[in-house]
Amino acid sequence: MKKIIILLILIGIICYVGKGVFTKNTWDLMVCKILMDDGAQCYDNSYVLKGYKTQNECMEKGIELAKKEGFECGKNCKKEDGMNLIVCDVICNKNGCH
Fold first, then answer.
1. Exposure class string for 34-48: b at 16+ Cβ within 10 A, else e
2. Burial (0-12, 13-18, 19+ Cβ within 10 Å), 6
3. Does 38 have pLDDT greater than 60?
4. Domain map of the chain by residue range?
5. Predicted model pTM
């Protein structure tokens, strides 16, 4: 019985530690079609470019591409089911991250 408990604890630790190794953090660049009143956040997107490896890489491309439109970079974004809404763990724009 002790061996089974120890084995289960070890499997739990391996899964917990391995989660960070196997979870990929990706950043998506969202170029704005319409900006909100603050001039930094997207109300609607013209297009989304997926798969940047770092926040810095995404932000640099956003600055390069979206000189007039504005942009946001989102970490681990996914589209909400049945809606045209993109939800991200973190969103960054020219005013910072939230």
1. ebeeeebbbeebeee
2. exposed
3. yes
4. 27-97
5. 0.70
